[in-house]
């Protein structure tokens, strides 16, 4: 489903809400100098797998255009980095009939410069900001206490991601390097090793809770060398393997919230979804955004659906052609059915078979018949009487 609203969509994110009533926030800019950039909130219909035709709420950005968006895991707070060098904080207020975006004061996020990456940790207790100038900030949330303030962390930030336990922050730079930070104290943990002809472009931690890996896309300078997805072990930060998946330069890399799927968006509009367990392609949308680089790619919090955005084609919601997963109630229903079938089978076996309890009774002569032949020794009298010898 494609959203056909006026304006250039520069970024977008899912907003997780209770009872799977998820929303989508989009950052829009306009070519006209008189039109203001906006943040717009749209509802998502899980039955039709589409966004609402008109926004539920919107907020005019007075200065600058939206560059990237971060949404807190609880869905109540949104941060938008703008081209003016400020990060604007909003609180999402939802009621039965209305949705509102309320701006909040956040002095620590003002005047920080152009931010190319902003990300909340999985537990929602930290915020990472990576600037175009290579400045890295890790802040405690919601106190905004500074954990790390490193002006020369990278040449210029390209991508970043927090680990599942929120302990590590990985980041990549436009010069092809990648570093890992301890998000609790800001200490550098590792600089990922690469060959001289390789550039590490995108990074994303595994999120399934069983495989502590860091995925990165690597571009090679060799002739006819295809880009590959490389895996690093988080216990040693050593490179343990790679696979050619998209086979073309990727513009965005992300994982589903349950960690079962990894998705890559290409610079020419393709989307490739891979099952992490097997590292095999499960879904491929070719020319989803024809001829344009995918700017944002994110899995829906509750459905096997992805949100993609490009400046040329706007926002699209796409259903994934991946195997249908069993839901809890379906599993319980199957177990109940198996239990009933077992009970019915046991009953049939009991009725039809010659079971122990159904053996015919063993024949026993009647005691009354024996007594009639032998007589009652206690009560019978000798008809001849006693003999007097």
TrEMBL record:
<keyword id="KW-0853">WD repeat</keyword>
<dbReference type="GO" id="GO:0006888">
    <property type="term" value="P:endoplasmic reticulum to Golgi vesicle-mediated transport"/>
</dbReference>
<dbReference type="InterPro" id="IPR015943">
    <property type="entry name" value="WD40/YVTN_repeat-like_dom_sf"/>
</dbReference>
<keyword id="KW-0813">Transport</keyword>
<dbReference type="GO" id="GO:0015031">
    <property type="term" value="P:protein transport"/>
</dbReference>
<dbReference type="GO" id="GO:0003400">
    <property type="term" value="P:regulation of COPII vesicle coating"/>
</dbReference>
<feature type="repeat" description="WD">
    <location>
        <begin position="160"/>
        <end position="191"/>
    </location>
</feature>
<keyword id="KW-1133">Transmembrane helix</keyword>
<keyword id="KW-0472">Membrane</keyword>
<keyword id="KW-0812">Transmembrane</keyword>
<keyword id="KW-0653">Protein transport</keyword>
<dbReference type="Pfam" id="PF00400">
    <property type="entry name" value="WD40"/>
</dbReference>
<protein>
    <recommendedName>
        <fullName>SEC12-like protein 1</fullName>
    </recommendedName>
</protein>
<dbReference type="InterPro" id="IPR001680">
    <property type="entry name" value="WD40_rpt"/>
</dbReference>
<dbReference type="InterPro" id="IPR045260">
    <property type="entry name" value="Sec12-like"/>
</dbReference>
<keyword id="KW-0677">Repeat</keyword>
<keyword id="KW-0256">Endoplasmic reticulum</keyword>
<feature type="transmembrane region" description="Helical">
    <location>
        <begin position="329"/>
        <end position="350"/>
    </location>
</feature>
<dbReference type="GO" id="GO:0005789">
    <property type="term" value="C:endoplasmic reticulum membrane"/>
</dbReference>
<dbReference type="InterPro" id="IPR036322">
    <property type="entry name" value="WD40_repeat_dom_sf"/>
</dbReference>
<dbReference type="GO" id="GO:0005085">
    <property type="term" value="F:guanyl-nucleotide exchange factor activity"/>
</dbReference>
<dbReference type="InterPro" id="IPR019775">
    <property type="entry name" value="WD40_repeat_CS"/>
</dbReference>
């Amino acid at each position: 489903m494609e959203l056909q609203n006026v304006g250039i969509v520069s970024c977008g994110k899912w907003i997780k809400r209770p009872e799977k009533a998820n929303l989508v926030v989009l950052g829009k800019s306009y070519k006209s100098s008189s039109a203001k950039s906006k943040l717009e909130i749209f509802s998502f219909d899980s039955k039709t797998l589409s966004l609402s035709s008109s926004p539920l709420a919107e907020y005019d950005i007075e200065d600058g255009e939206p560059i990237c968006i971060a949404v807190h895991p609880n869905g109540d707070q949104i941060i938008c980095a703008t081209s003016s060098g400020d990060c604007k904080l909003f609180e999402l207020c939802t009621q039965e009939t209305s949705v509102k975006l309320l701006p909040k004061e956040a002095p620590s996020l003002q005047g920080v410069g152009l931010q190319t990456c902003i990300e909340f940790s999985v537990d929602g207790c930290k915020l990472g900001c990576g600037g175009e100038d290579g400045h890295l900030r890790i802040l405690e949330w919601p106190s905004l206490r500074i954990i790390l303030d490193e002006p020369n962390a990278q040449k210029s930030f390209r991508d970043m991601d927090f680990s599942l336990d929120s302990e590590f922050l990985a980041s990549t730079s436009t010069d092809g390097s990648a570093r890992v930070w301890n998000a609790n104290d800001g200490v550098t943990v590792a600089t990922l090793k690469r060959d001289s002809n390789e550039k590490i472009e995108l990074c994303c931690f595994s999120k399934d809770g069983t495989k502590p890996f860091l995925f990165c896309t690597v571009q090679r300078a060799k002739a006819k060398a295809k880009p590959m997805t490389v895996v690093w072990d988080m216990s040693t930060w050593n490179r343990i393997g790679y696979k050619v998946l998209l086979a073309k330069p990727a513009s965005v890399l992300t994982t589903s919230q349950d960690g079962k799927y990894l998705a890559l968006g290409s610079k020419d509009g393709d989307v490739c979804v891979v099952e992490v367990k097997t590292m095999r392609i499960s879904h491929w949308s070719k020319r989803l955004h024809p001829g344009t680089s995918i700017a944002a790619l994110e899995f829906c919090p509750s459905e096997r659906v992805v949100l993609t955005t490009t400046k040329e084609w706007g926002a699209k919601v796409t259903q994934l052609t991946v195997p249908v997963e069993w839901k809890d109630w379906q599993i319980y229903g199957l177990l109940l059915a198996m239990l009933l079938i077992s009970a019915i089978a046991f009953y049939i076996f009991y009725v039809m078979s010659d079971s122990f309890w159904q053996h015919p009774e063993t024949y026993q002569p009647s005691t009354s018949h024996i007594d009639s032949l032998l007589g009652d020794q206690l009560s019978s009298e000798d008809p001849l009487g006693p003999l007097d010898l």
